[in-house]
Amino acid sequence: MHKDILEELIALVSRSLAGLGLLEDHKEAISLDLPSDNRFGDFTTNIALKLSKQLKKPPREVANQIVEAIQKEITGTDLKDLITQVKVEGAGFINFYLKEGYFYELLRKVIIKGQEALKPDLGHGKKVLIEFVSANPTGSLSVAHARQAAVGDCLANVLSFIGFKVSREYYLNDEGNQINILGKSVGLRLQELKGDNIEFPENYYQGDYIREIAGEAEKKKIKEDKLGDFAADHILKIIKQELDDFGVKFDCWYSQKELAKSGKVEKAFENLKKKGYLYELDGATWFKSTEFGDDKDRVIIKSDGNQTYLAPDIAYHEDKFKRGFEWLINLWGPDHHGYINRIKASIEAFGHKQDNLSVVIVQLATIFRNGQEIQMSTRRGQYITLREVLDEVGKDAARFFFLMRRTASHLDFDLEVAKKQSAENPVYYVQYAHARICSILRSSEVKIKNDLDLSVLKEKEELSLIKKLLEFETNLNVCLETCDPYMITVYLQEVAESFHKFYDLHRVLGQEDALTAARLALIKGVKIVLSCGLELLGISQPEKM
């Protein structure tokens, strides 16, 4: 919604810098942001701080020069009817103050057009593939996988909303050593069922679910060499159901086993060899990843003839591009950080830009119950699963809490707080604001007309709430730039807080007709924004609580 005015203001600053002879090499440095405190205007730029070092002048002196030029540029343009003040404040920030009428008209657009007014077309139909979760089918999804699921699904929602053509993909590692170990783990449990005393190797899967699978395998008389595939298929059904209950659906489940059968891995190697990026050394085949920024070359076929983990991943990522995707986003756990450069090297070797792949590292989550951290061990099956979290706190709270911190930050998830029906629980706080507004709108017989007079909204809390609503697009931009939907949870809490503060101080119903209608329009705008934000998070928008 702010896009047009931002472009005009940036152009205004550019012309002003040009008039001062300062535009050269600095056009890209011009940016406008929302001030952290709305007492300091409606938009702000730090261009003077950026220029001060080069010009060897104090930032405020540079800022005053620029403001003087801006004020001359404004004369004779439409902006003179929109901007009330341009001021130098703080360390040298240039702050723009806009007339209230500008915000009234943006609110009117939201009321008339609904969510459509909140949609910036930033993607222009660009095809994006988001690959996330991709947990090995060796056990139920852990809270680490659950956090990735929430982040990936919400990010996909946001990118779709702002104009990208998004596909969700789960890369299924359904072959290899971990499937063999899974099968052997089930085999040992089968021996236990027959009365044998078994000592499990440390690296085997030991949870109760292995006993259950063993029982199923015994009933169905599964052969020993098929136990791994049987167990993986059984677990995959559980994973799919858990994700479905979590509100996460994938467009494609991409099988590594099928990739291996397709010949695409060998074809990828042939192409790399033709390009001169493979070589033989000590009986192994190496990929020249150092030519593309990796810290060392990587083995893709070992001297025993077996492929490394990197081999199918190289072919898999090239296949993503061959399927027509222009931007790849991978959500990985923190243990994959060192893997980024080698995959980026591989896509550049095939002729793609490294920037066409974005890797988001999703940090781990720690679960607390009654103030105590719950210890986890995946192999031993001693960990809190997504299913347990869903059963205990429900889908809405689970999704919101998994999204409440930046993906790059460790997350503490307090189960007790997530179950509270009070302002202490952030998802309850936001949903309650939505339900409260629905109740008020149901109670009123006043019609909200498109041409109603919004200028009667003069109270500080009213104007603050209007401006908070119009920050929605800015937060969507942040999500796009960071590939992280976390800011939406923060923003929705701020909107809810701003609404509750307004409503606690000002009555909506029972006022003079013009004021009641305007305040109803305002809270309808709040409802539209809250509903849209919750929808992007994959969380319900209750009308009664």
Q: Which architecture of the largest domain would the CATH scheme give at its second level?
A: 3-Layer(aba) Sandwich
Major pleated sheet: 5 strands, parallel
> Structural class from helices and strands?
alpha/beta
Q: Quick one: how many beta strands? A: 14
Identify the CATH homologous superfamily of the largest domain: HUPs
CATH class of the largest domain: Alpha Beta
Radius of gyration: 28 Å
How large is the share of residues in beta strands? 5-15%
Percent of residues in helices:
40-55%
Overall pLDDT level:
92
Total number of helices: 20
Describe the structure.
This protein is of the alpha/beta class and 545 residues long. The protein has 4 domains: 96 residues, Gyrase A, domain 2, CATH 3.30.1360.70; 163 residues, Rossmann fold; 69 residues, no CATH class; 116 residues, Isoleucyl-tRNA Synthetase, Domain 1. The protein contains 20 helices and 14 strands. The strands form 4 sheets. The protein has a 5-stranded parallel sheet with strand order 6-5-4-10-11, sandwiched between helices. Helix 6 crosses helix 8 and helix 17 runs antiparallel to helix 19. It is globular and about 85 Å long.
